[in-house]
Amino acid sequence: MSPELVSRIAQLTGRDVRSAQVIGGQHGYQHLEVVFADGTPAFGKTSEASAGGGGFMAEANGLRWLAAAGAVPVPDVLGADETTLIISIVPPDGAASPETAYRFGGDLARLHAAGADRFGAPWPGAIASLPLDNTPGDSWPEWYAERRLLPFLRRAVAEGALDAEDASLVSAVVDRISSLAGPAEPPSRIHGDCWSGNVLWSHGRGWLIDPAAHGGHRETDLAMLALFGAPHLDAILAGYSDVAPLAAGWRSRVALHQLHPLLVHACLFGGSYRTAVCSAARTALTA
């Protein structure tokens, strides 16, 4: 590892660094294993340029904001700037059980209930390597259409992942968003990229990592958990419902909330996600 990076980590964290080595990578940045001089381990990410010039700062701001709710455990932010993020280690201690999944559901409900001032966030957002427009708004349907669906739809079309017919289908969802969105709800404090890979199971609880946190709709996090198959999802939903029951008809809106992450995947991975995007749009329109 370069002396410059070790020096940057020491400066960001205010701690002497014994070692730092690359252990992998994703979305154009490197994963780091860091060991401080006292033997304490940490996890890091580094890149010459993060999403939108602030992806790591978005992640750091999101982790701190989620932690402030005191509901779902998250790693501590030890240091961050636009090209480097250092956080505490979450030691895995096995797979989820129905009991830990149920507890996580209740914790997630309490996180959402901590709320947000408005939809969006006061910092520029990022998801994977892509920027997110977190400009605040007061109406979730319009905010979701303008800040989440349309930017990624345009990008997916421009990059050839979707064609004009696909775009018309998603645009129909945007046109009907007010009638499809269900009962109005206040802004929830959501993780924003809550797929199963961003939930770590440790010490009998579900921990959240890699947030795209913002004030959003609470059904979004639950739809993301369903999208890629969270373990013991029924137990998670039961734990959630026992703390904060969902609005009537929420199951019919799952596809609507999954449409944004599927558009993100189309932008990241191309036309292989075309069928999933179109299926979600059709389901959202006919639910």
Largest sheet: 5 strands, antiparallel
Return residue spans where pLDDT drops below 50 for at least 5 consecutive residues.
none
Which CATH C-level class of the largest domain is it?
A: Alpha Beta
- Helical percent range? 40-55%
Name some characteristics of this structure.
about 290 residues, 2 domains, about 45% helix, five-stranded antiparallel beta sheet, Phosphorylase Kinase, domain 1, 10 helices, Aminoglycoside 3'-phosphotransferase, Chain: A, domain 2, alpha+beta, globular
If you had to describe this structure to a student in words, what would you say it looks like?
By secondary structure, the chain is of the alpha+beta class. A 5-stranded antiparallel beta sheet has the order 1-2-3-5-4, with helices on both faces. The protein has 2 domains: 3-88, Phosphorylase Kinase, domain 1; 98-286, Aminoglycoside phosphotransferase (APH), C-terminal lobe (Aminoglycoside 3'-phosphotransferase, Chain: A, domain 2, Alpha-Beta Complex), CATH 3.90.1200. Helix 3 crosses helix 8. A hairpin with a 3-residue loop joins strand 4 and strand 5 (84-88). Helix content is 44%, strand content 18%.
